[in-house]
Design goal:
Length: 729
Amino acid sequence: MSVLCVRAQQPEREPVVVEPPVRIGLALSGGAALGFAHIGVLKVLEREGIPVVAISGNSMGSLVGGVYAAGYSASQIESLALNADWRMLFSSSVPFGARYLPERQQTQRYAVQLRHRNLVPSLPGGLVPLQNVEFLLMRLLSEVEYNTGYDFDSLPIPYRAVAVDLVSGEKKVLGRGRLEQAIRASIAIPGVFAPERLNGMELVDGGVQQYLPVDPLDSMGMDLDLKIAVLTMKHNAETGVSLVDVASRSIDLMSPGELRRQKELADLVIEPNVDPFTHSDFAKAAGLIAAGESATQAALPRIRELIGARRPLRYRRQVAWRPMSVVRSVRFEGLRVTREGTVRDEVTTRPAAYLVFGRLVDDLVRLFHTGLFEDVNYRLESVRNDSVDVVVEVRERAYGFYSLGIRYDNVDAIGFGLEVGQGNIVGSGASVRAALDLGNPNEIRLGLTGTSLFRLPFGYRLDGYAGSVERSYYEQGRRQGVYTVGHSGGVGEAGYVVGRDAFFVFGLNGYRATYAVVGSLRDSLRAEWVVGPTFRFEANTYRDVDFPTAGMESRLELRSSVKAMNGTRQFARASYSYQRAMPVFSWLLLRPAFDVGLSFGEPAWAEQFRTGGAEFVGFEPNEFTSAQRVVVRFGADLRLFRLFGQESYPVYAQLMGNVGTFAPWSDLLTIANVPSLLHWGVGVGARTNTPVGPVRLVVGAGDFGLTPAGWPATVALFFSVGREFRYTR
């Protein structure tokens, strides 16, 4: 018997269709500081597992997007934004501690400084060269640029930067070359930051033509499924008053039709609420990042709807390490006045050694800090796969300079200062200058300064001067009149810098002092020569010499006159001063200080210590003229508010007190005599910084109870506006 087996027919299965992953592109707009909101967008996309495979950026969007495309995470970029000194980066100033102390003091002497070429004022293409930003980007990006063969498509995330060529007027979408230079070009706001000169082009902020760069995403050939644009633009009135605010707002208003077109090209536009901020609010990065996070969080439902059931493509290329090349040669390009020997020692990258980008960037930083160049950069020229030529590209600055100063105080009235000079004489880095002060004092000074002496690392100064200064004369606390000291002579000094914040100098000073006097001084003062060696050691960590808010100053000075060198009298005097600004809280600053002066022999009248005024409250300037002094001061500054809302212009209320003695040291040996030889005072005041320099008001009273009526013996007021530019005071 046979059994028939019938197999049941299985239903046919539907073929499984695998949806291709979603390719997401991200376009980041400009906006100066407002572009910090892009960091918040990236943070949320990272957190929610929504990767992007292509990025385009303009201006600040170029900076944030370019660094992200190079492999840095959103949190790393956030840390950079929160901790960087953006005021310094977007300025032409040298970072604190990078310039030697004498140079720092000289650059802060005058309120206005202009450059000239052959006596014709030199106007830069932008007010700020952005060199400090370039150095930051070099440190972040040089190695990844090298390892990806200078191809933006080979970055961890393919990337494009948008800029505009001022020469041709065309928009440029940058996708090859140095990533740092592409970003630098894209952030160059016209009229604020100098253009980036690249391959014959003068590149500036792409926002001039395209504020929101959506269509550059298509230039990468990525066949994107979803384009997300982030627009950081204010919709209310701009309240900022800085040049960055005005110029950025002007760019915002350009090409509204193009902006609408770019928004239409995007599948989704995220617009963080940046209305509470200004384009220059770099110090408010945290708030702007939070605005970006909030806007992206609100957009997540729409993003997920656009993605649908498909998964986003995760595309973040691993950059392969490329062996470092050997340096075959190092050469300079752009030296026209400067001799190569003047700057060669600043470059430690040497032939036959491996290329180290950190060392190379340090070399460029040192070159820039010489003050000889407006811009420094580098270019690598391949010789073979394993060796390169390093080309140091420099653009020399205009070496002629004008410096202007104006100052008023209620003692010397108004004073004007003018300094004209020519730097980098015969390419040596040395400078000649002529300074003229009008007011009190009146002085003319001719000088030569340099940073190397016979190829030794010693700075030097040779000055000849002539002038006069008017001072008040007091006896027993009572003003007797005024006298004038005339001085003419010269000084030669050579010194060495100790670190970045200290230096010492040895010198020889010689001058003839004449006196036009009144009263009891008439018969005792005759013209005299002061000739002798000098020594000075100074350490100073103040960021602003005239308006310190943190740091200290310590100064030791020895001066002498020797009869064997034709000095009229033989004497030596030593002085030491110390003062400190101690931030206790953000609103409280303590200011202890003291001065000690000691003379041996009989010092010339022009070399006496003069004490009083704002630095010894309660007494008039020059009220104490003495051969010895000991002064102890203490103050407390309370910050009230900021002028113009700017961190650079805090307004402080001041409380201060001081005590001093000016008697000969022999009189102080008897302890019982000391109380009667002390002079003390207290005062209140206010100080602030302004674009034209510090403003200060001090009202003090001293030596209470010394008059029969018990009223203070002295009440003094001091008011000043402007920086201290005078060589003789």
